[in-house]
Specification:
- The structure is a single chain.
- The chain is of the alpha/beta class.
- Helix content is about 20%, strand content about 25%.
- A hairpin with a 2-residue loop joins strand 22 and strand 23.
- The longest helix is centred in the middle third of the chain and has 18 residues.
Length: about 450
């Protein structure tokens, strides 16, 4: 088929008409092109959205007002709250809190903890009564550290993880899961009281239990050491971003990942974590260049639960740096070209091609479906066809896809739309970094005529 393109001078004269007819600002074919020819659309780039799914800020919902757009919330929960009686889990009660103000309609990242310094112990009472010992410490406001290597403790954690997997592995509201459970805050250390921490064997059993329970989720662990450092499928979280991300010390976040030869894990498993608590003004202010470098090196997709969105400020530079950071985090898909027939036959296959760029630092980590739709004048999708494309492969840089799809609709003119469907909300959700109209999640490119 012949591709019909437009010169710049011709395009200038046609733009007012095209805006009126198509209600979009992009490069398309002139009306004189024959129906059998291809339409080539080259949309203008634009800043990407600040609340695209599964990227960006992921704040607490109980730490005050959230001042910036976000699509995810972070949920801590103690083991004691989840399983106050052995084998009886209070998932319903926990999930009710997910619909509180600030959390409603947001994806969730969670971490279960046992020992949160300065807070009541998260060890279930039934394990304490069974004889699991705790050791007092004074660090970080004091607390009680359980014996992670007690066989009753390990068995209990494995049963809990299995129950979590049964409940949440297929729950598409869950974005990512941090392994938690071990160490202070569930961060897999008890520094400086290193003698209180779990053995490598306990770590291995927890990791393997999570992997078995959550085959369909992207999981995160704090450090790339021991058994975790041997897993090509696992993601990591840095809870001192960007201060300790790659600070030149051999104990830094990225130094540990490199030492374990897991520097490419970001291509298949999510990387994220918390900004140094209370220091957003520093890291988005005078030290912003360091923050940008650390984001690029670590391939972060999200930041939370403490993050700049929790800070109230009228500083315009702070806002601009926040937006730059969010847009660079994770994925940011920008379409550079779409090609499709000007006319397609009813129930006959039509070839569509897509070219684009991922301007972010990471891919998208789930196989959400890519769908093309024909929409009527009311914006209703009257025919939807799924392209067998795997958006997890749209790594930073350019990507290109082709497909042949059939649409079963009555003859007439339709708008051509593209959507990437969020299975939780059951609607197109990912938006592109382009100057294109979006309606009900569908991104519109041009018009298609369907003939008999």
């Amino acid at each position: 088929m012949t591709k019909c393109l437009v010169s710049e001078s011709t395009m200038q004269s046609l733009m007012p008409l095209l805006r009126t007819v198509l209600s979009i600002a992009l490069v398309v074919i002139p009306a004189a092109c024959l129906p059998a020819e291809d339409v080539v659309v080259r949309p203008r780039p634009a800043d990407g959205p600040l609340d695209n799914p599964l990227k960006g800020w992921c704040p607490y919902t109980n730490a005050g007002t959230i001042h910036q757009p976000y699509s995810m919330v972070f949920q801590y929960i103690s083991w004691r709250e989840l399983e106050p009686v052995a084998g009886q889990f209070r998932f319903d009660e926990w999930e009710a809190s997910w619909n509180s103000e600030g959390a409603k309609d947001k994806h969730v990242i969670f971490r279960v903890y046992v020992d949160y310094p300065s807070m009541p112990s998260g060890l279930p009472e039934w394990l304490r009564k069974a004889g699991v010992k705790e050791s007092a410490y004074e660090d970080y406001g004091s607390g009680q550290s359980p014996d992670y290597n007690d066989p009753r403790m390990i068995d209990g954690m494995e049963r809990l993880i299995a129950a979590l997997g049964k409940r949440y592995n297929k729950n598409s509201r869950i974005a990512f899961i941090q392994l938690g459970l071990l160490g202070f805050w569930g961060e897999w250390h008890t520094y400086p009281r290193t003698e209180l921490y779990a053995s490598p064997e306990t770590e291995r059993r927890v990791i393997d239990a999570y992997r078995k329970a959550f085959p369909d989720k992207s999981l995160m662990v704090r450090y790339a050491r021991g058994h975790a450092g041997q897993q090509e499928w696992i993601g990591f979280h840095d809870d001192m971003f960007p201060e300790d991300t790659d600070n030149g010390q051999d104990w830094s976040f990225l130094a540990g990942i490199r030492k374990a030869r897991r520097a490419d894990n970001w291509k298949v498993a999510v990387i994220g974590g918390e900004m140094v608590p209370g220091k957003a003004e520093q890291w988005l202010g005078k030290d912003f260049e360091t923050t940008r470098k650390m984001l690029a090196r670590s391939h972060f997709s999200w930041v939370g639960p403490y993050c700049p969105a929790l800070e109230s400020t009228k500083d315009e530079t702070f806002r601009e740096h926040s937006e730059q950071l969010v847009r660079k985090m994770g994925y940011e898909f920008q379409i550079t070209e779409v090609t499709h027939p000007a006319t397609i036959g009813r129930k006959q296959t039509a070839r569509l091609s897509l070219k684009g760029k991922n301007n972010g630092v990471a891919p998208f980590y789930y196989p959400w479906s890519v769908e093309w739709a024909l929409l009527d004048s009311d914006g209703k999708a009257v025919s939807i066809a799924k392209a067998e494309w795997d958006i997890r492969k749209w790594l930073p840089g350019e990507f290109a896809e082709r497909t042949e799809l059939a649409f079963d609709v009555p003859p007439g003119r339709y708008r051509l739309g593209l959507g990437i469907r969020d299975p939780w909300k059951d609607r197109p959700a990912i938006r592109f970094a382009n100057d294109l109209p979006v309606e009900k999640g569908w991104t519109f490119f041009s018009q298609v005529r369907v003939a008999e």
